[in-house]
């Protein structure tokens, strides 16, 4: 929709979904209950599973994860020291990069298929997902009231996921 080159290829999305997110998602099953669970009344059977607030929260998280991931790839094209330093217009119109288009003089089309921006996007996505796993310790409690070490399995899975990511 933005006209940008792909930030992630399908195999990278599989890596995130199956390998790096799988371990923390499993470990979240070992979370202790919220501290105030017995003080709250039961949820009404007529109440939807995903409330308006929870839907907004999911949309906000998806928005900033997507923006940071795409932004990391775009940053490489625009500003990185070893990047091509293209303009935003060139980046969003990269499909028009031909030898006959004067807007792209001196720019090789291959630069829009470079692995560096995809690597940056993948690393940003994995890091944010690990932070979101910590954010998922409790729906209502802060990390100060329910610190990460209450679920040692989650901390171990985050370390293992990050280690696997560093290996690739």
Automatic annotation (TrEMBL):
Membrane topology designation: Multi-pass membrane protein
Transmembrane regions listed in the UniProt entry: 55-78
Superkingdom per UniProt: Eukaryota
N-terminal signal peptide: none
GO biological process, one term: calcium ion transport
Keyword Transmembrane helix assigned: yes
Pfam families (alphabetical): Cation_ATPase_C
Keywords: ATP-binding, Calcium, Calcium transport, Ion transport, Magnesium, Membrane, Nucleotide-binding, Translocase, Transmembrane, Transmembrane helix, Transport
Magnesium among keywords: yes
Residue intervals of the Cation-transporting P-type ATPase C-terminal domain: 5-168
A single GO cellular-component term on record: membrane
Subcellular location: Membrane
Primary location group: membrane
SUPFAM superfamilies: Calcium ATPase, transmembrane domain M
GO molecular function, one term: ATP binding
Protein name stated in the entry: Ca++ transporting ATPase fast twitch 1
Source organism of the structure: Phodopus sungorus (Striped hairy-footed hamster)
Annotated gene: Atp2a1
């Amino acid at each position: 929709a933005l006209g940008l080159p792909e930030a992630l290829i399908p195999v990278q999305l599989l890596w995130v979904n199956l390998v790096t997110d799988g371990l923390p998602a499993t470990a979240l099953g070992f979370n202790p209950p919220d501290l105030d669970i017995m003080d709250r009344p039961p949820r009404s059977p007529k109440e939807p599973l995903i409330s308006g607030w929870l839907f907004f929260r999911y949309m906000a998280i998806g928005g900033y994860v997507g923006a940071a991931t795409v932004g990391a790839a775009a940053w490489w094209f625009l500003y990185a020291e070893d990047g091509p330093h293209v303009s935003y217009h060139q980046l969003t119109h990269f499909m028009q990069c031909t030898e006959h288009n004067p807007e792209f003089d001196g720019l090789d089309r291959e630069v829009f298929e470079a692995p560096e921006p995809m690597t940056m996007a993948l690393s940003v996505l994995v890091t944010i997902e690990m932070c979101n796993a910590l954010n998922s310790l409790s729906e209502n409690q802060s990390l100060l009231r329910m610190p990460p070490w209450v679920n040692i399995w989650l901390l171990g899975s985050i370390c293992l996921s990050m280690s696997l990511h560093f290996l690739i």
